[in-house]
């Protein structure tokens, strides 16, 4: 799958940026502590003979944002005591995206849209041209913009309809990039689902939740009667709810998945230095166990034994 956006204001398509030389050498570095992706690394280096810790004026900070790790959550922006961090938005080049979609190893596209301006979506869709005919799945990720949400969805569905060769999926982004914050983060995305479930003229397609999703999302959906379940042989069925209104068929875990798998990944450098998790079966099994404990209730897998 390849992800694109129709608006540079989309939170998923931005990177944090700052010059570490603009930071005071004795800065407590709250940005480094708050980053959930370990995408900020700052080191104090000596610029004169004196030790930096005893005389901050003789030191400077080096490092900064590790761009390939930053996914644009924005938490560093508000904690910087000197307001030195900027969010740099970008738009994925549609021409380059169209070329990617012609490859045999790319069969799905995710389009992030702000849910406000159909013209911007239509421009992006037109730019992709016939390459869109090569994909098996088109996922549209959008936030809840209130009463106009369904009208927007129906409008862009009409734009896409003639080119839909496979499945289409609506990803309801209730509270972007916040699932790892706490239990309550899932309320907005479940409320988004509840709102859409009450509207009969919503567009066809599969629906899944994103943004604020965490281990409490499934239980909240069950209580609202909105969770579709698939039971595999040997899987427990107690507590599963199936009803004609349960149109949520999937959950996308982003920030929370990074959090639980990241706990395992961070153990490896301390013991082995730079290494691939695939080369260390114990850690790989632990990471898979963490991941399956999260997606298992969605997929209807049997409860995993403790490691």
UniProtKB/TrEMBL annotation:
Gene3D superfamilies attached to this UniProt entry: 3.30.70.3270
Highest taxon in the source lineage: Eukaryota
InterPro entries given in the database record: 4Fe4S_Fe-S-bd, 4Fe4S_Fe_S_CS, Fe-S-bd_prot_LdpA_C, LdpA_Fe-S-bd, RLI1
SUPFAM superfamilies for the chain: 4Fe-4S ferredoxins
Pfam families linked: LdpA_C, LdpA_Fe-S-bd
Domain 4Fe-4S ferredoxin-type: 14-45, 61-90
PANTHER family on file: ATP-BINDING TRANSPORT PROTEIN-RELATED
Protein name: 4Fe-4S ferredoxin-type domain-containing protein
Protein species of origin: Oryza brachyantha (malo sina)
């Amino acid at each position: 799958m390849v992800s694109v956006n129709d608006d540079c204001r989309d939170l998923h398509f931005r990177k944090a940026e700052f010059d570490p030389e603009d930071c005071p050498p004795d800065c407590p570095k709250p940005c480094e502590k708050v980053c959930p992706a370990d995408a900020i690394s700052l080191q104090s280096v000596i610029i004169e003979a004196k030790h930096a810790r005893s005389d901050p004026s003789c030191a400077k900070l080096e490092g900064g944002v590790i761009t390939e790790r930053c996914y644009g959550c924005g938490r560093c922006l508000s904690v910087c005591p000197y307001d030195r961090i900027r969010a740099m938005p970008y738009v994925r080049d549609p021409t380059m995206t169209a070329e990617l979609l012609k490859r045999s190893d790319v069969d799905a596209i995710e389009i992030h849209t702000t849910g406000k301006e159909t013209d911007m979506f239509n421009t992006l869709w037109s730019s992709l041209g016939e390459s869109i005919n090569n994909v098996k799945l088109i996922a549209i990720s959008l936030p809840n913009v209130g009463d106009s949400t369904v009208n927007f969805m129906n409008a862009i569905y009409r734009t896409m309809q003639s080119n839909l060769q496979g499945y289409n999926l609506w990803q309801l982004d209730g509270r972007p990039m916040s699932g790892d914050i706490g239990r309550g983060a899932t309320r907005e995305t479940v409320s988004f689902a509840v709102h859409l479930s009450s509207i009969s003229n919503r567009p066809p397609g599969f629906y899944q939740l994103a943004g604020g999703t965490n281990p409490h999302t499934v239980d909240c959906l069950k209580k609202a009667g909105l969770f579709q379940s698939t039971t595999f042989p040997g899987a427990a069925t107690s507590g599963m709810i199936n009803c004609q209104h349960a149109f949520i068929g999937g959950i996308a875990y982003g920030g929370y998945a990074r959090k639980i798998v990241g706990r395992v990944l961070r153990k490896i450098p301390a013991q082995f230095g730079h290494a691939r998790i695939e080369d260390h079966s114990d850690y790989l099994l632990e990471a898979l166990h963490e991941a399956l404990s999260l997606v298992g209730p969605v997929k209807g897998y049997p409860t995993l034994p403790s490691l």
